[in-house]
Structures are given as C-alpha cells and as structure tokens.
Amino acid sequence: MRKIDIFDSTLRDGEQSPGFSMNISEKLAMASMLEEMGVDVIEAGFAACSQGDFACVKAIADEIKNSYVASLARCTEKDCEIAWNAIQNAAKPLLHVFIATSDIHLKYKLKMTREEVLKSVASTVAFARSLCPEVEFSAEDATRSDREFLREVLQTALNSGAAVVNMADTVGYAQPDEMRELVAFMKANLSCDRDWKLSVHCHNDLGLATANTLEAVKAGADRVDVTVNGIGERAGNASLEETVMALKTREDVYGAYTNVNTKLLVPASKKLVMLTGSKVQANKAIVGKNAFAHESGIHQHGMIEDRRTYEIIKPEDVGFSDTRMVMGKHSGRHALEDRLRELGFQGLKPNQLDDIFEKFKLLAEAKKLVGDRDIEAIARMEVLNIGEIYKLDKYVINSGNILSNTCNIRIARNDGRYLDGFATGEGPIDAAYNAINDALKIDIKLLDYMIESVTGGTDAQGAVSVKVLYRERTVKGYGVDINIFEASIAAYLNAINTIENDPNGTIIGT
Ligand code: KIV
Ligand code: ZN
Q1: Buried (b) or exposed (e) across 390-404, using 16+ Cβ within 10 A?
Q2: Cα 171 to averaged position of ligand 2 atoms, centre (Å)
Q3: Does the fold of domain 390-501 match that of domain 2-276?
Q4: Which residues surround ligand 2, an ion (CB under 5 A)?
Q5: Which stretches within 12-113 are classed as H helix?
C-alpha cells in the first residue's frame, strides 16, 4: 500500500474565496483540527499577501507541531523571504513557491517568456531552499501548459532543490483520463537523485476535482491538495473528505492509504461551517446532512435487513455521532461534555463548559428533547463569543401592523456600566439594531442577516448570522435563542464584541 500525503489548503485556497474569510483565532482553531485529523501539510496562508495573512501564518507555524506548515509564495525572493519569516519557527516548515506555466498566463499575466520563467524557477527555488529545508514548487495552470515546457519547469525545480513538484489544474479544465496520463508522463519523465514527490492540485469548475485527484493517485501521484468541504477559488478544490474516503473505501482500486483519522471528517466539516458561517449542501458526499439519510421505502427496507444494501460507508466511520441519543433536562454535565467532544468541540475551557451547560439546562426546560443540532448551536455561540464586552441586559420591542416598530434597550458593559438606547425601525429587528447603535453611539451598518430554525417544531431555536460593516471592516456575528429577537440581538452584539476584541480594533461606545 502506498501512503498518499494530504496537503490541506483550506486555510489558503479555501480561505481566499468569498464567504470563507477567517480571523486569526478562527484560523488557529481550524489548524489544530487539521493537525488532530492527521493531515501531512497545513497550508496556512499566503504570508506576502497582507500583514493579516502574515500574522495568521506565523501564529499557526508557532502552534502546530505534527503537520508541516506551509506558506504560499510567488516565485520571487521577496515573497520567499516573507514566507520564511512567517514559518521559520514551525516544527516542520514548508515553503510553497509557484509560478504559472501556460502560454496564456505567460503572455497576459506574467508578461514573461518561457526562458525567463525557467530562469526564475531555477534561481527562486534555489533561494527558497537556502532558507527552508523543505520546498514545494507548483506550476499554476499546469494542465493548460505545453507538455514539454511543463516537464522542463518541473525538472528545473527538482534540480534546484524542490522536494515536491505540484501540477495545478487551476481552472478545473482537465478531464480524468487527461490527468491520469499527465501524471503518468511526469512520473516516467522526471528524475532526481534525491527522494522526490509528485503532487496535484485540482479545481472543481467542471465538478471533476475529486475525480481528477483520484485519477492522479492511480497514475502514481504521491501527494494531493485538498480542502475541507471542497472550499476554494470559484467552484472550489478537491474535497478532503471525498478524496480520503474514496481512497479508504476503494482500497482495492487505489492500493493507497492516508494518515487522516476519518472519524474527524464530520467534526472538521462542522468546525469549518461554524467558523465561516458558510454551510455545506445537504446532499454533499460524506459530510452533508443527507449523506446517510434513507428516505425511500425500498431503501429503508433494505437497510433494516442489512445496512450494506444501501450503505458503502458506516456513518460512524466518518464521525457522524449516534443521533439516537437525545439529551434532556436530567442529562448531566459529563454527558454533555462527551456529546460536545463527539460534535467536534474539543478543548473547551471549564468556564465555556459551564456557560454551555447553563444554556443547555435552560433550553431543556423550554424544550423537552435537546438534539445534537441544538447543542451545536449553543456551543457555537459560546466558542464565537470571545470576550463578551457588551451583553444584553433588557429590552422592550413594540411591533405590529398598526404601530411603528420601536425598541428600548439596555446593554451591560463589562466595566459595570449600563448603556441605554432607543430607536424606531422598518421592522422589530431594525429597531433593535438601531437602538443598540444608539446605546453604544456607534455607526455600524448591517450588510447581511440570516435566520434559520435549528431544528423543526414551533419550539425550535432560531440561529441568526449577521455580517456588519464597521470602518471598512466586515465582521460576522452569530446568536441563537428560542426567542428570535434575542437571537438577533445576540448576533449583533457578537459582531460588536468581535470588533472590540480585535487587537487593532477601536474602542467604541466609550
Ligand atoms: O490553483 C492554483 O493554481 C493554485 C496554486 C497557487 C497552487 O492554487
Ligand atoms: Zn488553487
């Protein structure tokens, strides 16, 4: 059996796509989940891209011990220096240098000749190697590049000290048989007197990212770039969970394995949803909420006789917890703690557990049975609520179809002061948000508001996600409560607390 390296780019290719941006503590939380899951490489970001990216890559490099921590760098010495400064304290640093190789990119984007690209690869990879013991080189748009030129570029990178050469299907153009053939060609025609690895990076523009990745493995690729939930530029990247489970389930076809603990696939997927607020579709393979649901009578009958009739993977093998266990007001703290761990909330601090337990008990009083989704929603709010500076004390909302919407609100500050506000609004939530702005004397604009029911039933909790704009920064907020006004207020205050807790943030409402 061949070992296939998992190079995870959730925090770089994934994070750079719209709707998936994460702050430093969110990225750290995701990185430690990836490390626990056993991925070989965590691509933590693109250090030269911005100061914020640099800080995130450095923080992850300082923290992670078992996986390589990579920073992306364009093929310039300056980028490599910045990337190296960010990752040099990592237990296992990896410098990831890339340049495009297709004629269309050379002509219109790089404005370089093929000779200039070859020279740049030779000198920059050698420079990167002088800084960092482990260098990976990627050819961007490799699948639309001239085959012989691509081979020459990859060979140059290997000759200059790269340990891994990677071919990117940057625009998701390749077909599975083309990818298999390309990998087989490079395996046969590249050489190096050191150990070296061939890798692929597939995008999903034609829905083929995972298929192309698997074909590459068949043809001999040693490493694959993937992301949790398949997030990434445009239609995304090959999905980590699909790739890992295809290799595991069809070991007979691939003769390969990964070091990923598959029981953490669902917790990792959920953690990413929690941190970014972007959901996965219900029918998403492996981690979608319907991935193991059997609706039709014929299927259900088959499942009762023998699960293998309609199930090729056991849900528990990918980390779906046993949903038959429901919790109620008599459940204890230990049971809740175990449940939280199964749901992906490892490493909660004792005070966080106390808060979650208190909210769980209140909910269990109001609702007879508390399901996993309720517990997740409460825990998510707790994890996202770092440093509660402002808290709801009390409020009155007046709303109806014969009067204007008004809100009186009192916000408690963690220094013991109370701030009162009053406002009218287009609707009750608008009035509440205007009243908070009035109380805190701030000018925050609501960009996005989403409410959904955590479970079915009229006693369901409402989960509210907001995006607000404050001084050119977009900040997320999340709140959950059986009372949807309180969930809405909590989400807005969560966004405000996030702004307040940012080390570069401005103290507002003083
Ligand atoms: O899609 C791409 O080409 C990339 C490279 C930087 C590897 O993400
Ligand atoms: Zn990419």
Answers
A1: bebeebebebeeeee
A2: 8
A3: no
A4: 13
A5: 24-37, 51-63, 77-87, 103-105
* Single-letter residue type at 23: N
Question: Any idea what the Cα angle at residue 11 is, between residues 5 and 16, rounded to 5°?
Answer: 125
From the alpha carbon of 237, which atom of ligand 1 is closest? 1
Residue type, 192: C
pLDDT, position 339: 83
Q: Which pLDDT tens digit goes with each residue over 483-497?
A: 999 999 999 999 999
CATH class of 390-501: alpha beta
Distance (Å) from CA 198 to ligand 1 centroid? 15
Measured from the CB, is residue 13 less than 6 Å from ligand 1? yes
Residue-by-residue DSSP string for 95-130: EEEEEE-SHHHIIIII---HHHHHHHHHHHHHHHHH
Instruction: Give the per-residue pLDDT at 508.
Output: 46
Q: Give the model confidence (pLDDT) of 395-442 as tens digits.
A: 999 999 998 999 999 999 999 999 999 999 999 999 999 999 999 999
User: What is the per-residue pLDDT across 88-119, written as a single tens digit (0 to 9) for each?
Assistant: 999 999 999 999 999 999 999 999 999 999 99
What are the CA-CA distances from residue 361 to residues 141, 191, 341, 355 (Å)? 54, 63, 18, 10
According to the model, what pLDDT value does residue 299 have?
A: 72
From its phi and psi, is residue 204 left (phi > 0), alpha (psi between -120 and 50) or beta?
alpha
Q: What is the pLDDT of residues 129-139, one digit of tens each?
A: 999 999 999 99
Please tell me whether residue 452 adopts helix, strand or coil conformation. Answer: strand
CATH of 2-276, one of 3.20.20.70, 3.40.50.300, 3.40.50.2300, 3.40.50.460: 3.20.20.70
Candidates 434, 481, 34, 7; CA nearest to 272 is: 34
pLDDT tens string 342-355 = 777 877 889 899 99
Instruction: Give the residue, by CA position, lying nearest to ligand 1 atom 2.
Output: 170
Closest-lying ligand to the alpha carbon of 75? 1
**Of the candidates 152, 95, 149, 154, which has an alpha carbon nearest to the alpha carbon of residue 127?**
95
Closest-lying ligand to the alpha carbon of 227? Answer: 2
Say if ligand 1 is within 6 A of residue 32 CB.
no
- Count the neighbouring beta carbons within 10 Å of the beta carbon of residue 224: 30
> Where along the chain do its domains lie?
2-276, 292-323, 324-383, 390-501
Q: Extract the tokens encoding 45.
A: 């970001």
Helix (H), strand (E), coil (C) string for 361-407: HHHHHHCCCECHHHHHHHHHHHHHCCCCCEEEEEEEEECCCCCCEEE
Beta bridge partners of 449: 466
Q: How far is Cα of residue 263 from the mean position of the Cα atoms in its chain?
A: 17
**DSSP code string of 459-488:** TPPEEEEEEEEETTEEEEEEEEESSHHHHH
Q: Find all residues with CB under 8 Å of 296, minimum gap 6, and list them.
A: none
What integer pLDDT is reported at residue 507 of this predicted model? Answer: 40
Ligand 1 within 6 A of CB of 168: yes
